[in-house]
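Human: Not sure, check this?
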Amino acid sequence: MAFIDLTKAFFSINREALWWTFSRLGCPPQFIAIEEAVVTSEAVLASFKGEVGPSKWRSCCEAAVQCCDQMLTASWPTGHCPNTWDGWQCWSATPRDTEAMRPCPSYIYYGREPSCAKQATKKCETDGMWFRRTGSGQEWSNYSSCSVEHNIHRRLYVHIAAYSVSVAALLPALCIFLSYKQLRVHRITLHKHLFLSLLLEAVGVITFRFLQLYKKDLINQNLTWCVTLNLLTKYTSLSNYMWYLCEGFYLHKLLASAFAEQNSLVIFYLIGWGFPLVPLTVYSVVRGLRDDNTDCWIMPNESLDWIINLPPLLAILINIIFVVNIIRILVSKVRATNGNEPSQYRKAVRATMMVVPLFGLQYIVTIYRHQELGCDWHDIYQIFNNVIEGSTGAVVAIIFCYTNGEVLALLSRSFQRYKMQRKLGGNRANSEATQSGTQTINLQPKAHHQTDAPLA
C-alpha cells in the first residue's frame, strides 16, 4: 500500500509521549485515538520520523480541528449519515444509500504523493448510518482507491516482460557471436561486450522486480546481499552506456580515419567495464553514510542519483556528436561520388540512424524521469519508459545480429552444411542397406544348392 493507518505509525512510542506530542500540536483529545500496533515496514516508520513526519502529524491534527469546528457549526439533516471524523479526514453529512467521495489527504502517503488526485469513499447505508465492518462494528472508509500499488505492480510486470524478451534475444545472439571464428573481429567483440552488459542488467532487473512483487519482506530487511544486488544492477546499467560510447567511438574512428582498424581493445575494456566502478563507488560510499538507507536502496535520492546519472548523460552527449559527424562524413562522401542522386543522401542518413540503438541515444527519453505529470500521464510515461528500457537489448540483438548480412550468411552456410550432412548420412545408410541386401541375395542360391542336393 502507498498509504497506512496513521495510528499504526505509533510504533515503539509510549502513550504519554503521544499525548504530549498531540497536545503541543493543538490536537483536540476527543479526536486522538491512540492504538499500539506492530509496523513491520521500516520505510513506513521512517517516513513519520524523518523531516516530513512532523508536518504529516500537524496536517492531520489541523484537519481534525477543522472537522471539530465543522461539526459544531454545520447542521445535520434528518435522514442523513452524521458528520464524522474517521481518523483520516472529515466526512460531511450524507444522504441515505449514497456513497460519499473525498480527496485522499496528502498525509496518508509515506512516499511521494501521486501526481493524480485520488478519491476515498464512504458508504451511507439505507438506515442513515455509516457502513460498518462485519464483526468489529466499526465505521469504515474505503481508502483502497488512494493506493498506487496496482499501477506500480503493472509497471513491474511490464518491466519483467520487456527484459525477458531481451534475455531471450541476447542469449542466442551471444552464442552465435561466440560460435564462429569469422566473427572474432574487433567490431563484433565490442558487440559481444555490449550484449553481455545488457544481458547482465536484464537478469539483475528481473530478479529485483520479482523481489519487489513477491518478497517484499526481504527488501524491507535491507540485507547486505540485497543492497549489493541493487548496486550490481546499477553497475551493469552504467556499463551499458559506456559500451554504447565505445561503439560510437569505434565506428566514428573507422569513418573519420579512412577505415583504419583498431590494434588493441584495452582502452575499450577500461571504459566499458572499468570506468563505471568510479561513480558507483562514490555513490555507494556517500549513500552508505546516510541514515535513510532502507529497502535495499530502491527509493531514489535525487541529490545522490546524479552521481550515477551524469556519466550516462555525458556518454549520450558525446555519441550525439559522433552521430552528427558520421552523418556529415557520409553525406560528404556521397556528394563527392554521386552528387546528382538525392536518394543516396537518404540511404546514408538511414544507415546512420540504424546505429542509433547501438549508440544508446534512445535513452534520451528515459534517463530523466519526469516527476510532475498530470493524472494518468505519469503512469503512461513510466510504462513507456519500462518498455523502452527493457526491450533495448532485443532491438540491438535484432539489428546487429539477426539481421546482420555477415551473420545471416554464416548461419545459412551452417544450415546448408547441416542439410548436406543429413543427406550424405541418408545416402550412406541407404548404401549400407543395399550392400547388406545384395549379400543376402548372393548367399541364398548357395544355400539353396546345398539344401537341394539331399532332396534329389
